[in-house]
């Protein structure tokens, strides 16, 4: 089992123009998010790393398998139209990992508590990849709490049937093959500074905790998606090498009232491949 890294959360609020002492080490690991503020939010005793940027209607962004740092291009775009709240999921980044949070079903309830702490009343909720699954769980539990829901390359439904795998098993792929499928340029782990390596390993460990078995889905989610009553957009990358066509069709069938957008020249990581295009879809859909 992967080692569980233990390290201190960032202090209460860190503006990115700080450059001294321990705060500098905390911000160096997230230097791509230099357009906002990193803080620590206490959610009923669980300390969560929270990135905030922009000005406008509230938007809760739930990151994918590569953490909030991997979503920086999209967050920068969204901050031009929204007040963006982007937490690191429990166990990711520097966020605490409570023992009682070990299913994405649990995260759905956790984020309702986080929304209470932040005072978010019916925000736009955007979830990418793994975060799309989390966003769908929130919307099934308290549909009245979501103004608009955008799911970009979401996981969450059954990934295979008896004869065919519809979603690549990211835990079985080599890191090199995974990076190719994600269109991700990642330096060798051995070359990473310690703070960045810890984030990477911690993100990987948390993802496996939530998604190892059953593999990247909640068997009950499909039967709950009818509870989603808010305007919903599902966005897919035309060149997604992780999620196949049959899986996309299953999501459209489970959310028959949702709009579907296919973004050209983009893979699974829409937030990094085509951040401008995805942001434009989000702004237009949320503004309807």
UniProtKB/TrEMBL annotation:
Q: Describe the location of the AB hydrolase-1 domain by residue ranges.
A: 59-279
Recorded hits in Pfam families, A to Z, give:
Abhydrolase_6 (PF12697)
Where are the annotated coiled coils located? none
Q: Which domain of life is it from?
A: Bacteria
Q: What is this protein called?
A: Pimeloyl-ACP methyl ester carboxylesterase
* Species annotation: Rhizorhabdus histidinilytica
